[in-house]
Design goal:
Order of helices and strands of chain A: HHHEEEEEEEEHHHHHHHHHHHH
Largest sheet of chain B: none
CATH architecture of chain B: Orthogonal Bundle
CATH topology of chain B: MetI-like fold
Helix content of chain A: 55-70%
Number of strands of chain A: 8
Low-confidence stretches of chain A: none
Radius of gyration of chain A: 30 Å
Strand content of chain B: under 5%
Structural class of chain A: alpha+beta
Number of helices of chain B: 12
Distance between the termini of chain B: 46 Å
CATH class of chain B: Mainly Alpha
Number of domains of chain B: 1
Strand content of chain A: 5-15%
Oligomer: heterodimer
Number of domains of chain A: 3
CATH class of the largest domain in chain A: Mainly Alpha
CATH architecture of the largest domain in chain A: Orthogonal Bundle
Number of helices of chain A: 15
Low-confidence stretches of chain B: 1-5
Chain lengths: ~350, ~300
């Protein structure tokens, strides 16, 4: 116990836990609640029944009403705890509700009918996960198709991104040729030209290539990135040229030098680019919104947006879909967060 | 001769490796720059170039026609100017408060605390979430019968329909945007803080300098190059804000939270007729703002390199 206290109150050199330390821990505690709380709340809510989601104020945990089978009644009856009147403290089953009156019965003595005011009872509830919020996504909402569309775009775009960007970085770092500096500057200059300022003409190009309502309309504009070229080139400059020359002495082709030597050695930088590309593609919204207009082509992000705009959609499946959409990126983060944060701190890009 | 041939061969090989990337950049970045000017100076709702009649600066004149630029209602394109005003306020508020919170957070995380990696993850996690997911998370919290109102009522505080009242809706788009993105800038500032040599602080401590003096005379001056980069980066992104706001409020109530990029999207793609020329002209005006910010960043970066 003293070890735990000592650990938690450890400070830089000093032995005292002073005002700034209290402020630090208060700030961090508030941060955990504010930053993680909303996601946690959505995840909890996604396991509640539709009726539980209508409750106000909401209960913290996913609780569902308890029903029991009573002799003489075909349908299960919902259980209530009586809070007032003659039968206070008892647990009774409700046969039906008529206005302010609840007609109830003791499950163990079903012969006698008991009238209870609806304000004198509260539902008996138990912890229960409403898994149907998730299963209905596959039965009614075509979730599997949207998931596949997102996976396809993300995986294919990432593979092409890594390939194209690493090839360009290889050329710019391992060859001296006329125009090298100009090309490098030109590529980096595209950092100053976000796609958002060219939406209309890019749409024309995609349209003329016949790629509207195709995943390729999302993939092709995305696969050349100044960030990727810059990141990989900087890393490849640290790979000794002697290794390449030795391979060339053995008559290796330039492609083999690139594929067998440079690419494996650039794995750490490639990993960062893969992570970025997955994040960019999985989370992308505006460009797919413009290019993919048919629901069969929707990515998860488009489907989520479409459902939440549809007033007929209830919150239950929407919350479940939100959780399933954020789950893959959360798993990636949990496994790779050190690389993600290190990569961003170095490159300043997300 | 052999050397010359080798050089020629090497040059050819280099261009082969560059070709796929340059082709993509050419088609989807460089070509569209020129096409954008073409669209901005032509009319009609047709996407194909031959179908569009030349109209000169008519699209720009239409966007810029106002009796008073301070009153969007006096403008021919009132929604455009409401979007401009909204974007201006959004940029000022979002960037200002986000930098403040990012700096405080970076300084907290820079202290010698246990579980520092965990707390860094706490702040960074929202950065990874998609804007649609971010918006839905907060929509669930902010709706009339959501958990925020439940909490406020429990404490007998006033509640409201947060996303249906204009001023509150605007507050929340700023708040949610900060929530989603501040972790990114915190990371950069934290790296900047950790790059400051510790002997500077030790010397200050020997002199018995106060905490405020250490902050204002040592931390901030040495952190300023990183700070400038962070400010410019966040300005550039804030001008282009769209995704989580669009999903959270749809630009409403009315057009109270419609920002510039949403105007461009709706004008050019979402509504009929699709006014590609107007959207392109608005894009170029936004590009002009971004160009100024980018030049600021370049100047700041060069100054950082020299310093």
């Amino acid at each position: 116990m003293s070890n735990v206290l000592s650990f938690l109150t450890r400070t830089r050199g000093r032995g005292r836990f002073d005002l700034t330390d209290w402020l630090t821990w208060g700030y961090l505690a508030l941060a955990v609640v504010l930053m993680f709380g909303p996601v946690f709340w959505v995840a909890l809510s996604s396991f509640k029944t539709e009726s539980a989601l209508q409750e106000y104020p909401p209960s913290l945990l996913p609780l569902a009403p308890v029903s029991v089978t009573v002799e003489g009644y075909e349908e299960p009856l919902q259980l209530f705890r009586v809070t007032g009147g003659e039968r206070a403290g008892e647990v009774l089953a409700q046969i039906r509700r008529i206005g302010l009156n609840s007609q109830m019965v003791d499950p163990e003595n079903p012969g006698e009918r008991i009238n209870v005011n609806i304000n004198d009872r509260v539902p008996v509830r138990e912890f229960a996960l409403a898994a149907e919020n998730y299963t209905v996504l596959f039965e009614r909402f075509n979730f599997a198709l949207y998931f596949w569309n997102s996976v396809f775009i993300t995986v294919v775009a990432t593979i092409i991104t890594v390939l194209f960007n690493s090839m360009a970085a290889f050329a710019l770092s391992k060859y001296r040729f006329r125009g090298r500096t100009a090309v490098f500057i030109l590529i980096i200059a595209t950092l100053m030209i976000p796609p958002t300022i060219n939406l209309v003409p890019i749409f024309l190009v995609v349209s003329e290539l016949g790629l509207v309502n195709s995943p390729w309309g999302v993939i092709w504009p995305a696969v050349a990135t100044p960030t990727g070229v810059f990141l990989l080139r900087q890393y490849m400059l640290t790979i000794p040229d002697d290794l390449l020359d030795a391979a060339r002495m053995d008559h290796a082709s330039e492609w083999r030098v690139y594929w067998r030597i440079v690419l494996p050695l650039a794995a750490p930088a490639l990993a960062v680019l893969v992570i970025f590309s997955v994040m960019w593609r999985w989370n992308e919204f505006l460009w797919p919104l413009i290019v993919l207009n048919r629901s069969e082509e929707f990515t998860l992000q488009l489907a989520l947006n479409s459902f939440q705009g549809d007033l007929q959609t209830s919150w239950a499946p929407l919350l479940a879909m939100t959780v399933l959409t954020l789950l893959p990126i959360t798993l990636v983060f949990a496994v790779l967060q050190k690389y993600i944060t290190a990569g961003i701190a170095q490159s300043g890009v997300k | 001769m052999l050397a010359l041939q080798k050089m020629t061969g090497a040059q050819r090989i280099a261009w082969v490796f560059l070709f796929p990337n340059l082709l993509i950049f050419g088609l989807f970045t460089f070509l569209p720059i020129f096409l954008n000017f073409f669209y901005a100076t032509t009319g009609s709702d047709r996407i194909l170039l031959p179908d569009r009649p030349y109209v000169g600066l008519e699209n720009f004149q239409s966007l810029l026609a106002c009796e008073s630029y301070l009153d969007p209602n006096s403008c021919a394109r009132d929604i455009f100017w409401r979007a401009v005003h909204n974007t201006g306020w959004f940029v000022i508020l979002q960037v200002g408060f986000m930098i403040l919170f990012s700096l405080v957070t970076a300084m907290v995380l820079n202290r010698d605390i246990p579980l520092r990696g965990f707390f860094r993850s706490v702040f960074f996690y929202p950065v990874l979430l998609s804007p649609v997911v971010v918006a839905l998370i907060w929509k669930w919290i902010l709706q009339r019968y959501g958990v925020l109102n439940a909490g406020l009522e429990a404490w007998e505080l006033p509640v409201t329909n947060w996303l249906v009242e204009a001023d509150w809706a605007f507050f929340w788009i700023v708040f949610v945007s900060i929530w989603a993105h501040m972790g990114f800038y915190t990371l950069i500032l934290l790296a900047g803080l950790q790059a400051i040599p510790s002997d500077v602080y030790e010397a200050a401590e020997m002199d018995g300098a106060s905490k405020w003096r250490v902050f204002s005379k040592i931390t901030m001056p040495l952190l300023m190059p990183t700070m400038v980069v962070v400010i410019v980066l966040s300005l550039i992104r804030a001008v282009q804000a769209f995704d989580e706001i669009f999903v959270l409020t749809g630009g409403g109530p009315g057009s109270a939270t419609t920002l510039l990029l949403q105007y461009i999207y709706e004008t050019g793609f979402a509504y009929r007729p699709q006014l590609f020329g107007l959207a392109a002209a608005a894009s170029l005006l936004m590009a002009a703002v971004l160009l100024v910010l980018t030049l600021l960043q370049l100047a700041a970066t060069r100054r950082q390199a020299e310093g």
